[in-house]
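Now for my pick.
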Amino acid sequence: MAKVKVTQVRSTIKRPKDQKATIVALGLGKINKSVEVENTPQIAGMVRKVSHLVKVEEA
């Protein structure tokens, strides 16, 4: 599978609990933190849910 680099670019303050939980599940939590994850359908759905808080690049 291809890997993607997900970087948090916006804060989770004043966001719904489900979006905060999704950020934590992706391994993020602080602005400018990045993680490399496999591009599975589950991860793609999580990224889509918080797309306004993260930046995604091909790794």
The mean pLDDT is 97.
